[in-house]
Design a protein that fits this description.
126 residues; alpha+beta; four-stranded mixed beta sheet; two-stranded antiparallel ribbon; 18% strand
């Protein structure tokens, strides 16, 4: 058993407070948030059942993903028309250039703060 595997294997929860398993070795019935979402479910307020851990080779620190019980998960709430409208307005704001006021058709990078055409014609291009 490798040292990294030994650090990540604690099914009783004595070391980390919750049962801990190595990456990809969690028992059946436990899912991450992404896995629940792919199945059309959400945690629904349930507590964390366990965690999977992986030791990062570059930094030496652990990466953790929390696991939830699939049988206690609830279905995802459907999007309402107001939520769809708010999302559309937020995306429009991200696509609108503050300099020229046009919808450029892509999300403007926050590092630039304006569309490519305004950036090339401004003094910032120098």
């Amino acid at each position: 058993m490798s040292a990294a595997y030994a650090k990540c294997f604690d099914p009783s929860g004595a070391r980390y407070g919750v049962p801990t398993y190595p990456w990809r070795l969690a028992p059946e019935g436990l899912c991450t948030r992404r896995q629940l979402r792919a199945r059309g479910l959400r945690p629904g307020g349930q507590p964390i059942a366990a965690q999977v851990m992986r030791i990062n080779r570059r930094t030496g620190g652990p990466r953790v993903a929390f696991l939830y019980r699939e049988e206690l998960a609830k279905p995802v709430r459907p999007m309402t028309s107001r939520k769809w409208g708010a999302l559309a307005l937020a995306m429009l704001a991200r696509r609108t250039c503050p300099a020229c006021g046009l919808d450029v058709g892509y999300c403007i990078p926050t590092s630039l703060g304006m569309c490519g055409q305004c950036l090339s014609t401004s003094d910032h291009a120098a």
